[in-house]
Design goal:
single chain; about 160 residues; eight-stranded antiparallel sheet
Length: about 160
């Protein structure tokens, strides 16, 4: 197989993956212990914690991710840094779409779905304005990077009853 026969995209090394796992664990611990005061933003970009159920292990897996509020929904980008494969958290959500998010001190149950082509077209400019790296990631990979919509499964207690 020649390089031309392989899909385009970043191929992270095992060392990089191990370092990323350590950094993720530290980020999660700091975020949780400070209710998002530490780790709740990277620069001007808001960060949430997403907890999914491992599709093979059945264990809870938590990752910090950039997010965009879209009304009551939360939009995520399954970019995996432009890697050849989808991020594990998205593969987990495709198997078990119900998950938990934590934004600052608020935890909420959510259900994930892939944005339709129309939704992605509407959200993509806002997402790339939030983090311009997403545009570059899409350029370096052959896969269509999914936009993931998280819908709350709980009543929003901060909204008045109509």
């Amino acid at each position: 197989m020649t390089n031309r026969d392989q899909p385009a995209g970043r191929r992270p090394s095992k060392l990089l993956a191990a370092l990323q796992n350590v950094a993720t664990g530290i980020h999660n611990a700091l975020y949780r212990s400070s209710s998002g005061v530490i780790g709740g933003r990277i620069g001007n970009i808001p960060v949430l914690l997403l907890t999914t159920t491992g599709r093979r292990s059945g264990k809870q897996r938590t990752v910090p991710l950039f997010y965009l509020m879209d009304g009551r929904n939360v939009a995520l980008v399954a970019s995996n840094g432009g890697a050849v494969s989808h991020p594990t958290w998205w593969l987990n959500l495709k198997t078990t779409p119900e998950a938990w998010i934590q934004i600052k001190s608020i935890r909420r149950r959510v259900k994930a779905e892939q944005a339709s082509a129309e939704e992605k077209q509407r959200l993509w400019p806002r997402l790339t304005a939030l983090y311009p790296g997403y545009k570059r990631y899409q350029e370096i990979t052959d896969r269509d990077i999914p936009v993931v919509i998280l819908h709350s499964l709980e009543e929003d207690r901060s909204q008045p009853n109509d």
